[in-house]
Amino acid sequence: MSTLPSKQLETFDNATPERDYSIHIETPEFTCLCPKTGQPDFATIKLDYVPDEKCVELKSFKLYIWSYRDEGAFHEKVTNTILNDLVEATDPRFMRVTGVFNVRGGVYTTVVAEHRKEGWVPPTPVTLP
């Protein structure tokens, strides 16, 4: 296999750092293992962020997500770990990671974790009539 899972998140320079704009990334292929049973857990991971100087490179993000496939992880912990790793790599103005986990035992779990850079104030939304 020429491509392997990796915890290394690559970045590239934001071409428009003077502007607040949002990036949305969504992957329905997240898998990890239940740390209690070893059974697979499946989720959609949604990433929304306002970049500062760096953006996350998509192939490295895909390989990073893949790296959890054989790891045991509680939903709450893994969602926060993904956020921490992405914040460390990109130092965004704002970032939100949402883990929407598939049903297990009749229970759905959604975990939302957020980061705001100190001093960053979100722009006022424009509402058109």
Automatic annotation (TrEMBL):
InterPro entries per the UniProt record, alphabetical: GTP-CH-I_C/QueF, NADPH_dep_7-cyano-7-deazaG_red, QueF, QueF_type1
One GO MF term attached to the UniProt entry: preQ1 synthase activity
EC code: 1.7.1.13
Positions contributing to substrate binding: 56-58, 75-76
Reaction catalyzed: 7-aminomethyl-7-carbaguanine + 2 NADP(+) = 7-cyano-7-carbaguanine + 2 NADPH + 3 H(+)
Location relative to the cell: Cytoplasm
Keyword Lipid metabolism: no
Reported function: Catalyzes the NADPH-dependent reduction of 7-cyano-7-deazaguanine (preQ0) to 7-aminomethyl-7-deazaguanine (preQ1).
PANTHER family associated with the record: NADPH-DEPENDENT 7-CYANO-7-DEAZAGUANINE REDUCTASE
Family: Belongs to the GTP cyclohydrolase I family. QueF type 1 subfamily.
Protein name per the record: NADPH-dependent 7-cyano-7-deazaguanine reductase
Organism (species): Methylophaga thiooxydans DMS010
